[in-house]
Amino acid sequence: MGSVDLDAVSKIFSGPDGEIKAVQDVDLSIRDGEFVVLVGPSGSGKSTLLRLVAGLESITSGDISLNDESLTGVKPKNRDVAMVFQNYALYPHLTARKNMSFGLKMQGGFSESEIDTQVEEAASIMGIEELLEKMPNELSGGQKQRVALGRAIVRNPEVFLMDEPLSNLDAKLRATMRTEIQELQQNLGVTTIYVTHDQTEAMTMGDRIVVMNQGKVQQIGAPMDTYYKPANQFVAGFIGSPSMNFIPVEARWDEASLTLTHPNFELTFSETFEHIEERQTDDLVLGVRPEDIELRDDPGPNTIDVEIEVVEPLGKEQLFYYELDNGRYTASVEGHRQISVGETVTLQIPEETAYLFDNRNGETIKHQILPADPESTNEVFQ
Ligand code: ADP
Ligand code: MG
Prior knowledge:
Elements: E1 4-15, E2 18-30, E3 35-39, H1 46-54, E4 61-66, E5 69-70, E6 81-84, H2 96-107, H3 112-126, H4 141-154, E7 159-163, H5 171-188, E8 191-196, H6 199-205, E9 208-213, E10 216-221, H7 223-228, H8 233-238, E11 245-253, E12 258-262, E13 265-269, E14 283-288, E15 294-296, E16 303-307, E17 310-313, E18 317-324, E19 327-334, E20 344-348, E21 355-358, E22 364-366
Parallel strand pairs: 3-8, 3-9, 6-7, 7-8
Antiparallel strand pairs: 1-2, 1-4, 4-5, 9-10, 11-12, 11-14, 12-13, 14-21, 15-20, 16-20, 17-18, 18-19, 21-22
Helix pairs in contact: 2-3, 2-4, 3-4
């Protein structure tokens, strides 16, 4: 068992320039065995939230419970959680074996041979048996992180708390370790809260993603929901790479259609119109993912002619950049397609894949409609 409940959790630091609201009013229920990823830009309160669960910071208001029992007043070492840090946090003067056994020794109640057995078992899970007698400075970054993960496994905790554990590793190793941590979590079934600023890690690893910004939860959902059905413009811009294009437009609402006007183009939406509930404002932002933009041979309804300014070949795909009314935007096309700087191309923004946001508060007015998910067709975020 390892369910975690956060109830209206806030953390306010007092700094020299006044209060810093690091975490604001967070509600989150994590099921036993679930892998939840907290993702958001630097400073959004992810580490603070994790440290509150670990007991390394005290809560300003609200409550956190583990298996329905409040953790308020429970010391970090009694919380039955194990934390893994970005900088590994190994004791430099202890061997890998001693680093891994340290927690159990402190906890007490285990014989030397019990400790040895548990350390060796964790070492075999992490594939580091041959590293056990080495000192941290004899280990590579990836090996250190394996030892740190092994140390967390040895504790046999209810919950793993991982704060950007892969950020110090190079890209290739990061990808390998990402898969390993996922497999490890699935095999052990231990509830895991994983912090990252990397939306790829969030998308690939989490059962659910919690997107944070400025201490506040922006959306909690399955990875695909945050991509196809972002709750607001922040989530839409944060999830997905390269980022969604945001184009300010003026809306005209008619009986059965919506016309979006921009100095460079006019688009009319009618097929998805019935799925849009909020029709209050004419001040909208059109959101379109670079990968959803299509190239057309000829201009037609809902097309836009743009001049290519920069081309970035990435292999499988290539990105190109263009300007519309002083805004810089991106599109992505197949890698083998012939495109060149200075060329004028005709873009199509398909109605089904377009997003709309209320420019006054960033809330989503229209998101994608997934054919595989009929229930979603009528669902619009409020
Ligand atoms: P993240 O992990 O998402 O990058 P943090 O949780 O580290 O964000 O920080 C959230 C906010 O709280 C930031 O503005 C940060 O400067 C502030 N903060 C974090 N820890 C402290 C502290 N001990 N004292 C004062 N401010 C802090
Ligand atoms: Mg952090």
